[in-house]
Amino acid sequence: MGSYSIYVEISHLNQLNKLRPTLISTMRCELNELLQHFGGHSVNDSLFGYPLIFDAAARKTAEAAMAIHAQIRKNDKHLFGVTLLITSVPEDFDANRLQSLMLTVPENNCLWVDPKLVNEFSDYLTGECVEGFFRVDGLKEIGPRPYELLSKLLVRPDRLRAVQRALQKLEKEDNGFNTLLLRGEWGSGKRATLHKALDKLYPEDEVRPLTIPFYENLEDPMEPFVLTLRTSFANLPEYLDDEERVWWTSTGSEILKSAQKGGMWKISNNQMPVDLIQTFALYAKAYIERQNGKPAYILIDGFNPEAETASWLRSFFIELLTKQSFRLIIVYDSDLFNEKIALPGKGYEISFRQPSENAMVSILKTSNVKTTSGEITKWLRKCGASLYKLFYLIVEKEKKLSKSRIPGEGLVASLDNEQRKMLFLAYAASGLCDRDLLVERRGDKDDLRNAQLACYSYLLDFGLVREYSDGKVQGFSGAHANVILQDIEMLREAESFGEYLYRRYQANYPISLLRLFRYLERWGPIKLAIDVLSQLFNYLLTNRRLRAVGQLLTSSIMSVTELNAAQMESLQNVICTARLRYVLLTCNIDEVKSQVKDGSVSLICGRGPYAEEFKLQIARYYYAIGQQEDALSASKDALFAFQKSGNHKGETYSHLELALSLLASGKVRDAIDHFGIARRIGTQVDVSWGVIRAAAMETIGHFLFGDIPRAMRLCHEYREMAYRNGRRDLHLLLTLVAVRINWELGRYQEVTKLAENGRLISDFYGLTKESQIFKVWKGRSLLADFREEGEGILLRSGNPREANAYLAEAAFLTGDIEMARRYIAKARVLKRRNSYLQGEYDVWSDGYSPIEGRLTDSAGPLDVLGEWIEAFGIYISGGNGSLDCVMRLKNLASRDGRRIPAPYSYLYLLWAALIAPKTEEEQQVHLISQAYNQVQLSANRFDDYQAKQAWLTANPWNRRLIEEAQKRKFL
């Protein structure tokens, strides 16, 4: 394909490059800027091209040539002359021909048109013919460009006055009004009228609303927030208070960075909605504060009152309007003018209904469009309230295009093949891709890109595509796309574009994974659609976006696409994998078993792609229901399958599940090894969540094994890593481990600090159970530190079983035995909140279940708190001398094949020794010896003497044990 070209010949250029290099360099930069402005591209330093793919190419080339000529002539006094020639250059560019042509130009220092192109440019340029060439004097007055006419038509004079009045009232009236709703069908001029009104009201101060865009077919409620954060401004933290600045530095800035770089679909964060909304809230606050006295506007563009996001925004703005001074503008694309909309605040509504004949006359007059009353009546009947349709009718009339049933169809039918392809792709990928993805799909070389850019500009100029506030492209209505949908070439083009979008997503281009799936689901390739669906489910489930998963699972996935047998098997593997993992995360074990039994959830795994992931979920199912041998076998099957396929991410998760099954079976050292393997493999292949989870479980493994020093070091390292990487669940889990470790070391002030930190984070994210447990441990540590407020915290606790146990302990240690017995009696009658094995999702029923709740015995998951309560009750019950009580404590401390390790067994042995009959001296010594050996085993793992001494003496029960050991000369 050839192109119109502008050849610029600067006389004695080589000399000027030596004499005035800065001038020549500056001129070239200026020419390149002009070139981009007019949609051209650079062939070389002297030749600039304009593709022949749209009917406005000649006009744009003429305008560009005049602008380039005028720009160069500004430097006349520094140059030796300059000659410009508008010509055409074929794809096989011949420099010698062009230079020969320049030698035949009648006169230098002028702008000329090639003799072959005089007729093509006569409508746009004035001048005279000289020796066959056309010497240009200037541009002809040819009326507004298409996009200029469109922008004028979209601003309705009567609506402009109404919007201006409403904005003035919002600013001046002290009546609590702060909201403006613009309602009307899409294309009725709401946005253009609003921005024109703002320009007129604030001509000196550029007022740009903070825009929250709602795309059509919105499925992800977080999407509008992410899109809003794409625009950044400098020094944002300086507009926040101290506490907000701390949160912004640790969390908000990373969320903002991910949103702007398009990484939101790649990160792991189990509290993303909360973090995102908080980031948005501080971003909005900073935007308002930054206006520094100027009017602050927030615009919700394309508002959908039925969307989940709408309820989030409504609550957010109700609160924000009480704290900040700003005006909220809502653009609602709907012609349901009687529909009641719940808005956050009081204000005004302006309707953009179908214009009257008088209003239409005013619109056309303002836009310099000449017509008749008969045409106006006919246009109103065809257009309704859509000014885009009006524009299409005017263009089709001026271009003398064939009449069409729907306004715009004639214009679409007149497009060339490249334009039709791009229009169709913009429609198919509406809300998914931006301009760059469309214009670079052929390649990123300048000539290819500029040809596509010119094509895109044409569609944009004629209103066939539009851009959202964040740059994403919206194709026009399906009616226009239907004009070209029947072309099989377009379907192949859409599939090819799907492959391109998938590659760009894999290369970290900011593309919505959910919208990418919806595109591939409809347009293909099917294989990639299934792969993206698998990634989408994994992202949503890993980040605990469980409502979204439920909605997706109940939707008709890929129902509009014909699948072959292999594709159907792959799809079933993906869906069954997601459904099984979903029910394990959302239902109790009895419900999961019931769904498996009645066939709602399948355990039948196919052999095709994605079978490995299904096998992994089957392993998780067997683990959850307590069938550890089956879980071990299924984990190994999944591991071997992932290894065979070279899927190292899958290996990471398989080692994790294998380790959990080993841990539940009491094989703690083997479990620690596999947690470590999972962490190392995951680190190599960048499996963020897998690495952090493996690290957390490895820490817990060392804690359960009694290696307190190692657990303490790992906890310190991985706790902050979990927070930095967005895993609030694992951060809180490791915070609980840190609380438990510091309690064992007698560092009660550190326990208080850590527990309070855990409570604050839990409260911030609305995690009630986690918050209650941290409160209990804060109360316990305060009591141990002889601070009375600890008792009040425990008495008010929402977790009474654990709170009463610690109140009993504190009462006993201060000598109030009767009170201790009353508290422990209350604790003993309360049942545990959860009796299920801790899996992927931690259930915080008490301060032990997220840690020791991963161990089992023949009766099922251990109830460490229940055993502690029972044992302590026996110890303080006054049953001294009862061999039955001693035997029960010994049983609680037993280490049969299903009770390795047995948490607090040394403590139960100590208590058994202390209540044993005095006649059983030998048994007392044996019990003390066993308890001491267990404590000493852990103590020997300390490499820090002070920490070791704290472990042995600061903890009241360890201290009592050491005292008993000293009496019997074990030390």
Strand order of the largest sheet: 2-3-1-4-5-7-6
Q: Detail the poorly predicted runs.
A: none
Shape: elongated
What is the terminal-to-terminal distance? 94 Å
Structure overview:
By secondary structure, this protein is α/β, with parallel strands linked by helices. It is built from 44 helices and 16 strands. A seven-stranded mixed beta sheet has the order 2-3-1-4-5-7-6. β4 (82-89), α4 and β5 form a beta-alpha-beta unit. α37 (800-813) runs antiparallel to α38 and α37 (800-813) packs parallel to α39 (864-876). The longest helix has 22 residues, at 565-586. The model has no long low-confidence stretch (mean pLDDT 87).
What is the fold's blueprint, element by element?
Elements lengths: L2 E8 L2 H7 L1 H17 L3 E2 L4 E5 L5 H17 L8 E8 L5 H9 L7 E3 L4 H4 L3 E6 L2 E7 L6 H8 L3 H16 L4 E8 L5 H12 L8 E4 L9 H6 L13 H20 L10 H19 L6 E5 L6 H13 L6 E7 L12 E7 L4 H10 L6 H11 L3 H12 L10 H5 L3 H12 L6 H5 L6 H16 L3 E3 L5 E3 L2 H8 L2 H19 L6 H11 L2 H17 L3 H8 L11 H22 L2 H9 L13 H14 L3 H18 L2 H17 L3 H17 L3 H18 L2 H17 L3 H17 L3 H17 L3 H17 L4 H7 L4 H14 L3 H13 L26 E2 L2 E2 L2 H13 L6 H10 L12 H11 L5 H19 L5 H10 L1 H12 L4
Parallel strand pairs: 4-5, 8-11, 8-12, 9-10, 10-11
Antiparallel strand pairs: 1-3, 1-4, 2-3, 5-7, 6-7, 13-14, 15-16
Helix pairs in contact: 1-2, 2-3, 6-15, 7-8, 10-11, 14-15, 17-19, 17-20, 17-21, 21-22, 22-23, 23-25, 24-25, 25-27, 27-28, 27-29, 28-29, 29-30, 29-31, 30-31, 31-32, 31-33, 32-33, 33-34, 33-35, 34-35, 35-36, 35-37, 37-38, 37-39, 38-39, 39-40, 39-41, 40-41, 41-42, 42-44, 43-44
